[in-house]
# Entry
Amino acid sequence: RAEHAATLEPHARFEAIQIALQARDAAIWGWPAWPEDLRDPQSHAVQAWVQEHADEVAYRLWLQWIAHEQLAQACTMARKLMPIGLYCDLAVGAADGGTDTWVGQTLHARGMNVGAPPDPLSTQGQDWGLPPVNPIALAAAQYLPFRHMLAAVMAPAGALRMDHVMALMRLFWTSPDGGTYVNYPLQPLLAVVAIESHRHRCMVIGEDLGNVAPAMREAMAERALLSYRPLIFERLEGGAFRPPAQWQSTALAVVSTHDLPTLAGFWSASDVAVQESLGWLNGDAHVRALLARAQDRTQLLAALHAEGLLPEGVTVDAQTAPDMTPALAAAVHRYLARTPCMLVAVQLEDLLGQREQPNVPGTTDDIHPNWRRRMGCTLEQLATGPFFTAIA
# Structure
């Protein structure tokens, strides 16, 4: 408690206040909906509330300690059994109604959200509902909030994936009236990443998908940040899949990501069906998407054939593989294993052969059940499943 007081105490206070207020009124979604005198974490009203509810605050501190101990145990076990240990993730921002924005109100540009302009992945554009950090305020704070955040998330990690690594260089700020790119101080932020990575012996993977400036990839190479390379996007001119020998070595190779279709979903075009159901693909656009996916299947089979990886009974004719099977899934992952990439990762959904992707970019919970799907089996059953057995 004494060691982490600067960040731990405000979080415990926030949780205690939020839970108490929301118990009385379910519409209180975060601190912007609190009574005005509680919105300033330094106010006399907050200090008085904390004194009056000291037990509730202490309970929240205790929960954080328990979580810290459990994470430390998981870290120790992972490092004993795996060379890298835990592979952790850093989100691109914090919730508007959470602790970070309550404590750092001058650090965040509230009223704006982080997002992305329209692109092939999300033709409607994206609004992630997260207030961006003000780069001027961050520089004025000597980048300490960024450094402290990295230190906290790297401490238990052997590898860290930075979501939307372009945020180190620029972010798309959006509002109901439109959006624009805002530049960030790339070199100072990368220097902080490098320092904390060295201090914690934590390798860093930058999620560099979508609209990524060439200067960003050059900077990543200079600082030895690994790129993120999904098979779905690794294509040559004309659409053929890039042969394994031609992949970038300083990268993490994956079949897909949580924002893209799973391997089985890609094969069955279930993501195209989702986009059609949401009204994003209609008429000719829907037909073109289905035809393009049929070509994708043929090209993937051709890539596997060129490497001698096609399962028995499967040819370059996609009609010989109407469904994604464990044997075909294993062949795709062997294809990744032949690349010179420093790391290869397997997605849990692919170890289960699931079609549904965890997240559909550009949607919210009222439109699509993001991050809420149960896995198709228990943890104990996972290692005996046909896809897990074949891929492992």
Summary: Residues 5-391 form a domain with the TIM Barrel fold (CATH 3.20.20.80). The beta strands are 86-90, 113-116, 126-130, 157-162, 170-175, 178-183, 203-206, 227-230, 251-254, 343-344. The first helix runs from residue 5 to 24.
